[in-house]
Design brief:
With 428 residues, the chain is of the alpha+beta class. The chain folds into 4 domains: 2-85, Rossmann fold (3-Layer(aba) Sandwich), CATH 3.40.50.20; 125-194, Dna Ligase, domain 1 (2-Layer Sandwich), CATH 3.30.1490; 199-331, D-amino Acid Aminotransferase, Chain A, domain 1; 335-426, Alpha-Beta Complex (Glycinamide Ribonucleotide Synthetase, Chain A, domain 4). It has 14 helices and 24 strands. It has helices at residues 10-20, 35-40, 51-60, 72-75, 78-83, 100-107, 109-119, 134-142, 167-178, 247-267, 300-304, 313-319, 396-408, 423-426; strands at residues 2-7, 27-32, 42-43, 63-68, 94-96, 126-130, 148-152, 161-164, 189-194, 199-208, 212-214, 219-220, 223-225, 229-232, 237-240, 273-283, 286-293, 335-342, 355-358, 366-369, 372-375, 378-381, 385-393, 410-411. The strands form 6 sheets. A 5-stranded parallel β-sheet has the order 3-2-1-4-5, with helices on both faces. A hairpin with an 8-residue loop joins strand 7 and strand 8. It binds adenosine monophosphate and glycine (GLY). Glycine binds at residues 220, 235, 293, 297-298, 300. The site of glycine has 6 residues, from loops.
């Protein structure tokens, strides 16, 4: 069958690689894709907000499997658009991604918190305020323990959360969201949330509305500089496995997070189909949910897909008919590390348009492209996160040395990357 992947990052390039290994896939398209997916697959230059053109391409090219990479089209209702389309073909398409009501787990932090509270899922305590409650909000923040976490309710391109070490900072950030609408009008409320002190880990599941299969976990490195210094980014690297995620921890996440979550969604008539990303904080030995996302993580995907044994497509094709329980996902007992290569001045004002070279000797491991396009036959940088170098091996040090060898094989002006990926959890 022919398949379509939506998105343009290294996550989507990695998904395309994984899908292309399946004997069930004949032709693979990526929309809009990047310079890497253009070289290996076929890009469709369509905006992810243009549902009509996406749908007409799905129909005309007979794309029977659609995997949605980023959150925006999910939160905007792309899956519902296909489900309710006048042409019955769309109800036969296998779509990996939740509908709008379920994607609100990522799209609205208020909704997500309500579901967690109703389901009894361990999470930080929080209260919601709108601009109408401004005086109460100020008063509430003033007496809140520090640090205090302020979260804009809606999507905010990864910038909607501030961990504040002073009350004034928390009030100023709340004002920027509620009064100055820096993240747009969809962010008309904020959550004031307790700070959780612990170690973060990203866990993932593929879900069919009834069943789920856990995928490998990963640790993400969010700050730009070594030692977790400097501003937050989309993610500078990832590793898997994360040693503290043992069977006991995994069972706690299933029993206290996933099972109550799906029960609570089902009670509301919601059937979550697609990838679920559970952002967790391990506090002591216990998992607390920081956030749910309606998709896979970037750069976690580049790492975890390389730990999945065999073909993922049969599991994808079981989601529509809710038979995912018959497709256990096997995880390889190996180590994988991803190092993200970023443009100069990322994350503030990333440089663009620099020529990029990848040495032909880069044979082992994988280089997935993101902010890079093909121009006059050469690769040129086009965004903040330019590429992901993924190394693998039986042991963490092999994965890291392969990943950093790939970093050496890539060249562009002003390239930035972290040199300490994996050190905290793997101890290398
Ligand atoms: P999010 O956009 O929800 O992923 O939040 C961004 C980052 O803020 C997370 O990855 C955490 O590092 C941090 N964060 C969010 N909520 C909390 C919390 N309640 N306690 C501590 N850190 C948090
Ligand atoms: N790496 C974190 C994310 O994809 O949101």
């Amino acid at each position: 069958m022919n398949a379509l992947i939506l998105g343009s990052g290294a996550r989507e390039h990695a998904l395309a690689h994984k899908l292309s290994e399946s004997p069930l896939i004949s032709k693979l398209f990526v929309a809009p894709g990047n310079g890497g997916t253009e070289r290996e697959f076929e890009n469709l230059p369509i905006s992810l907000s243009d549902f009509e053109t996406l749908a007409s391409n799905i129909l005309e090219r007979n794309l029977e499997l659609v995997v949605v990479g980023p959150e925006q089209p999910l939160v905007d209702g792309f899956v519902d658009f296909l489900q309710h389309h006048a042409d019955p073909f769309f109800r036969t398409v296998h779509v990996i991604g939740p509908d709008q009501a379920c994607a609100a787990l990522e799209g609205s932090k208020d909704f997500s918190k309500q579901i967690m509270q109703e389901a009894g899922i361990p999470t930080a305590g929080a209260r919601v305020f709108t601009v109408a409650d401004w005086e109460e909000l100020e008063h509430y923040i003033q007496q809140h323990a520090l640090p205090v976490v302020i979260k804009a309710d809606g999507l905010a391109a990864g910038k909607g959360v501030a961990v504040c070490t002073s009350h004034q900072e928390a009030i100023d950030f709340s004002a920027s969201v509620l009064k100055d609408s820096v993240f747009g009008d969809q962010n008309s409320s904020v959550l004031v949330e307790e700070f959780l002190d612990g170690i973060e880990v990203s866990m993932f599941a593929l879900c069919d509305g009834i069943h789920y299969q856990l995928l490998p976990e990963a640790k993400d490195y969010k700050r730009i500089f070594d030692g977790d210094k400097g501003p937050n980014t989309g993610g500078m690297g990832s590793v898997s496995p994360v040693p503290f995620v043992d069977n006991v921890f995994r069972q706690k996440v299933e029993d206290r997070v996933l099972k109550p979550l799906f029960q609570t969604l089902q009670k509301r008539g919601l059937h979550y189909k697609g990838f679920l990303f559970v952002g967790l904080m391990k506090v002591g030995d216990e998992p607390f949910v920081i956030e749910f996302n309606a998709r896979l993580g970037d750069p976690e995907t580049q790492t975890i897909l390389n730990r999945i044994e065999g073909d993922l497509v049969p599991a994808f094709l079981s989601v529509r008919d809710q038979t995912l329980d018959q497709h256990p996902i096997q995880v390889k007992n190996m180590a994988v590390a991803t190092i993200v290569l970023c443009a100069e001045h990322y994350p503030d004002t990333p440089a663009k348009g620099d020529a990029m070279e990848i040495s032909e000797s880069a044979a082992n491991g994988k280089i997935y492209l993101a902010g890079a396009v093909q121009k006059d036959g050469i690769l040129v940088t086009s965004g903040g996160r330019v590429a992901s170098c993924t190394g693998m091996g039986a042991r963490p040090e092999e994965a890291l040395s392969q990943a950093y060898a790939l970093v050496e094989a890539v060249r562009f002006r002003g390239m930035q990357y972290r040199r300490d990926v994996g050190k905290d959890v793997w101890g290398n």
